[in-house]
Amino acid sequence: MTINPNKVLIIAHYPPPYGGISSHIRDVTERISSDNFIINILSFEKKFQHERLNNFLNLFRVRNKILINLLPSYVVNIKSIIKIFKKLWSIKISVLNFFSALNRSIIVNNYLRKLDINTVAIYGTETGVIIPFLKLLNPNLNICFTFYAAPIKDTNFFLKYKKFWEEVFLQSNKLSSSSKFCAQGANIILKNINVQVIDVIYVGVELDRFPIKDDTFFINKETKNILFVGRMLEEMGVKAVIEIAEKLIRLRDDVVFNIIGATGTLNDLVYNVSKNSKGKIKHKFDVSDKDLNSYMNNCDILIAPTVGSHACMGVSVKEALASGVPVVASNSGGLPEAIQNEVEGFVIPLVEGNIDILAFCEHIEILCNDDVMRLRMGKNARFKAEQKFSNQITEKKVALFYKF
Q1: What does the alpha-carbon distance between residue 357 and residue 35 come to, in Å, rounded to a whole number?
Q2: Alpha-carbon distance 124 to 161, whole Å?
Q3: CA-to-CA distance for 51 and 373, rounded, in angstroms?
Q4: Alpha carbon distance 385, 269 (integer Å)
Q5: In what helix (H) or strand (E) does residue 186 lie, and over which residues does it extend?
Q6: What is the pTM of this model?
Q7: Residue 56 CB: number of other CB atoms within 10 A?
Q8: What domains, with CATH codes, occur in the chain?
Q9: For 312-365, what is each residue's pLDDT tens digit?
Q10: How far is Cα 251 from Cα 226, in angstroms, rounded to an integer?
């Protein structure tokens, strides 16, 4: 059987709904699919649907469900399934996860056979549970595994099932992560792993979407627009944003806050705060790409008070850099890889795991009071985006990652 080495099956969530990783996969695959690659995407969802996205790119939305048409696959693979039970059942893994992963791996292997593909790219730490199953079903399969912050965020869970997760990492032919910070999570699973073998592939941004601001943009502005972009969740820093905004609008007449992003558990809180702010704190949920561009183009400062170890590196921060906007961010996760303190903005250390509200307010005020500093940091921000975070750079790295 002849297999095209540039045919790849990607296992990942695909938009909608939109998120940093989903949008990254959309942008990168649609571009490299016309450059010596034939890309197929398999997204586990609650429905079955096949979409032809372009001449080189297919999307299969499938359900993780045992179906009648899968029964022959169970029969054909019975020897491999017995091997799976012998090898993996004794390794600590929950019963539910075991059978869910087994079924998903059989579904994936069916598509690999049907599409004549021998390279699979798996995105998401939790999705990686299928890797040991896939390798036993298809020992010659090339597996590219991209993992994120989950081992750092939920260390106890990964240590509880450490033997199983060791198999996930060891059975992968190539490993990548979206920041140096997240790459360190591999050390929780494999103590002696050399993180240098892990490809750090940053989620890129489309620079052409964000035009460079004119030098006059930041000068003598009566109102400074301060922007937050993120899902309406506490770990994304939404409560901190509200506290920062309420403090600053009491102190200054020249600031307006915009809180925008995907819906979450704090929707009602954001709505009520906005409603009672007399137009000084505005909000918009589930913004389109076009609306996001508008917000970024009119933004003077972006804030990212992320808490804990949630962010490998926020996409909105890199979009702000591309827009030439200075950023005030926490030192959570991989954010310091994007923002160098006092160069593209300010990095505010967490205090005992919490956002330092006063420090955020102080540094936002420093930027509000200094037009030239905002201009200088904005230029540095755009330069950083061009040198490190463009989609063109990301595409080249992804293409190399997929090749065997």
Answers
A1: 47
A2: 17
A3: 48
A4: 33
A5: helix 186-189
A6: 0.88
A7: 19
A8: 7-204+391-402 (3.40.50.2000), 207-388 (3.40.50.2000)
A9: 788 899 999 999 999 999 999 999 999 999 999 999 999 998 999 999 999 999
A10: 15
